[in-house]
Predict the 3D structure of the following.
Amino acid sequence: MSNLYHNDIYKFEEPVKSYWESTTTSNYKYEKLSKNIKTNIVVIGAGYTGISCALTLAKKYDEDVVLLEAGHIGWGSSARNAGFCCIPPAKMSVAKMFKKYGKEETKKFFKNTIEGSNFTKDLIKEYKIDCDLTGDCNYEVAPHPSYFESIKEEALIYKNEFGIETEVYSQEEFNEIGHTGEEQFGAFSYKPGFAINPLKLLLGLAEQAKKAGVLIYQKSKVTKIEKKLEKFNVIANGHIITSNKIVMATNGFYKDDLFPDLNNMILPVISNIIITRPLTNEEVKSHNFVTHNPILNLRNLLFYYRLLKDNRFLFGARGDLIGSDQSSLLKSKKMEKQMKSIFPNWKHVEIDFYWRGLVAVTRKLTPSIGKLNDDEIYYSFGYQANGVNTAPWSGNELAKLIFSNSKELNISKFYQSLPKKYPFPFLRLLYFRIACLYYGLIDR
């Protein structure tokens, strides 16, 4: 199976040179799979979904679980993202949700989404994970005066329809409590919302899963899965794990190579991040950047950014379309230019880190959590770039489904059922390039 992107983005053996990796050294202590073993459940993918699912299965349901990761623990998108806990995990407007699913089902979806935010926060509290938790809400900023009315409308819908605490700020008001800049024409806030160091959260959860009895193997890429006499042989590093059930938790890094029923459903989209050197207090004051809450700039092709605890500035955007190391470098230079056009007082600030990861977009435009009809194969994917909010909660819901042996969960229909496959899947990137060109023109 050929990769959708350049091989550079799939180098499982190499650590990602992210800022998060520079803040910790404890993620290389897990072993590789080096022998044949038997277990009840194999979880493939040690990101938030896989670790949360394995942790719940072992701790709450006393299940026998093996967790496999192709890279080191913390290689994938769960430890590469910007650490924003945002809502909702969907790429459609509330109006479209109402039309497609109805008002009551949409309310249930937002209720589950809020549960997701709270679940992530509760895990941090329960296990006392030091992951640089910061902020108490999220801000969405109007990049142009024409966006301000729609921002006010969204805040009203969140408040009236879903009971979410919101507040609207004019440009002048947000200058005082948020920041100034060339693309700030008012904002609104919603709760709950916060930001974290995503790698520290992941490593904290992995530690708890290990304590609960989960066998965790890193640098153990699954190359083949065979079914024999109602059992699965999961092959990694030339060794076989025999299991009764399989959980697929690879999300954006799934390469259409293990299960025909799950192939061609994900459009993995690259998201790139740059991080500056620590800003001086004078530089921070020059844009009155007084908030540590995560911020979305509501362009069609979103920018997202936040001030870190050490005064570094994180800036993220939709990534390159090739996936090579060279294209990543070029994209980081373009993003630096974009960041400095929005925050011109920082035009001399150097960039210390740049990297990228894959987010999973599907035709359904919402996550999918469930079980294949005729097999003991469970899945959760498609968080539409909202994994910090959705993935730990989804892993926990998946554990409930596996343990209960029921066919579906008592959660919103938004999460249930698989997305449709992409037609002519080899053209997925072409579809995306056309969409990026279109939205890029609108943003200009």
In short: DSSP finds eleven helices and 20 strands in the chain. Residues 7-81+199-266+363-426 form a domain with the FAD/NAD(P)-binding domain fold (CATH 3.50.50.60). The mean pLDDT is 92.
